[in-house]
Each structure stands twice: as structure tokens, then as C-alpha cells.
Here is the input.
Amino acid sequence: MKVLLLSMFLLVSCASYRGDDNYTTHYDVFYTESKSVRQQGDIYYPEKDGIYPGVILVHGGGWNGRKRQDMNSIAESLASHGFVVFNINYRFAPEHQHPAPIDDLEVAIKFLKLNSQKFKLNKEKIGLWGYSSGGHTSSFYALTRAGKKDLEVQAVVSGGAPYEFTWYPHSPYIKGYTGVYRDQNLKLYMDASVPTHITPHAPPFFLYHAENDRLVEWVQAQNFAAKLKSQGLYVKTYSVKFWGHAFAFALPDAPVEKGIKFLKKKLR
Here is the structure.
């Protein structure tokens, strides 16, 4: 129990890769008319003049817990490097099941684009960054909206994510998210798996994952990367040494630094 509590406490990114840009933050911005805390976020944008690429952050937590503040350090790092950042909450399972978080992400992107002038956003240059279940949400969105001009994104950073649901016949997290175990509805599990939706229009991906992850196996990222490469698509991977699922998110700076450099390359 002590290990579990420590892991949950540490599931807050402590990234320290910071740039020199100053930024303004608007907290508790509702991106729907519901005025629900599960559909609000914090927007960071540069103080200096110009238009800038945007990044939407999607936190982890098994689709049923945690909060956007887990991603605050990553949001601050991105903002200090000249990105417009929208760090969002989304609706939780089991009350809201697949694809509710993906639909919320779409609405958040539309909201940010609608307010692009206010927040100095370049609407043609938007990336996503998610960890764990947030990585699944971000990756699923990117592939299912690829090629749709008003909805597509231009890059994805995803860490520690379960891409292939069919590997988990009895996962309580996926059961809560989908409403069933795998063998009760295999078709749903296949459709909710990220690689199912790979198309030639997929954006570039940067995937990072802990080699010692016991919650979501490292091979999940390797398998997804291989499937992207088999279609001639751009993907880079980074294996986090030593740490497991929660600690790989909370402790190392290298994945954040590499993720930001990837987004700079792809969005500027």
C-alpha cells in the first residue's frame, strides 16, 4: 500500500527543461457550455507578439481519475519554449465511456482554434501530448482525425500508453472505459485500439515508455512504432531506463526535453 501511495503521489511531472520565453496563464477555462470542471483547462500563451504553435495536454489516470494538474510542469516547460498550451480535464469513466475523452479533446481543440487570435495560436500547427490513458486518447484522436483539415493535428507526443486493448482480456481500467471485458465484445476492443486506425495521413509521433513498466508493457510502444513504420510513417521512440510506469512520468527530464525538441521540429 505504501508503494502504491508513493507512486500515486509521484504521478505528477517534475520536468525542469525550461526555456526563456515569458507567458501568461488563464486558469479554469471552460471549453464547453456545461461549466463542468471535467471540461475545463488552463491556457498558457506567450507574452511577446506573434503567432505560435499549440499543444494540448491530456493527463493519465486510467480514464477514471487524476487531474490536469499532473501535467502542469510539462505545460510550463512547453510555454517557456514558445508554445500555446491547453492543459485539459475530460469526462471520466465509467459514467462516460469510450470515446468520451476523445470527443472532449476534439471540442477542446475547436475551442482553442475559435479563440486563436486571443491566445496567439497558429491554427495550422497543433500537437498533442498525453501520458498513459492520456497517450491513448491523444493517439486515437490523431489517427481518427488524420486527413480531416479542420480537426487534424500535426504531431503527437505519447508516453506510457496502452495502444492495443486486445492484449488485455481482464483489465479493470479498460473494462471501466469500454463497459466490457475483451471477450464480451472483441470488436469494440479492436476498434478502441489505436493501431487499428493507422492511415497514410497519420501525423508524426514521438513515443516514450519505461522499459520496466509493469502496468503498461514497454512492448506496447514498440509494437505501435513498428506498425507506423511498416506504413512508411514518421515515428521516433525513446526508452526510459530503470523506472516503471509512474516514476517514468514523474522523475526523468529526458523524455520531456526530447518531446519538446520533437514538437519544435514538427510544428515550426
Notes: The first helix runs from residue 2 to 10. Residues 1-10 have pLDDT under 50 and may be disordered.
